[in-house]
Amino acid sequence: MLIHPTLRMQSWGFTIGALLFALGSAPWISTAMGTAGANTVFFVGSWFFTAAAFVQLVLSGPATTTDQGKPAIRAEWLSAAIQFLGTLLFNISTGAALHAHTVKGEEHLVWNPNAEGSVAFLLSSALAILMLLRANQIWEPGSRDWQSVWLNMLGSIAFGISAVGSFITRDGTSLDAAVAMGGTFIGALCFFAASAIQLGEDDRPAEELAGIG
């Protein structure tokens, strides 16, 4: 049995994952679900992110190429690889949140990988923007790929702000719970939009898919 990864498969994974993160952090919904319910939704959503990121990594093509006779790492692959690493860190963070009951556990198993995953998303998005710049596509608002890349960057920034707000203080509480949930909600909406706009695209070859989340 063979599975052929496609852009549509990737986009659906990110879209569903982002929707779950949005539901888990929406003020009127997360309150009704409670902490355990919201954390469960985040955990499930993180695995949709990981599955989609793996498809993106496969579609990004080979890791290396030859440039002027010298081996070089392809930016498309590196961006996808860093994003995939970030999703794995979110798997750890959201999974640990279901079981961590001590301040140390919250700090080392929940906040640390959450912050590291947010940094990975920022780096991946920055590489995608650099690829737009190199291709002279830094301002093409009519392009779905351009819209997706910039929405991903906005989502990554929002997730980074959320990570700051969720910093675990010495008494075991978040530095700013409202900022943490608000950043997650806004970031999830950005990721949802970035992926949803790609669902209408026909599947394309791997070399055209870099930087699309």
TrEMBL record:
TM stretches of this protein: 12-29, 41-59, 80-98, 118-136, 148-168, 174-194
Keywords per UniProt: Membrane, Transmembrane, Transmembrane helix
Cleavable signal peptide: none
UniProt name for this protein: YrhK-like protein
Species of provenance: Rhodococcus olei
Lineage: Bacteria, Bacillati, Actinomycetota, Actinomycetes, Mycobacteriales
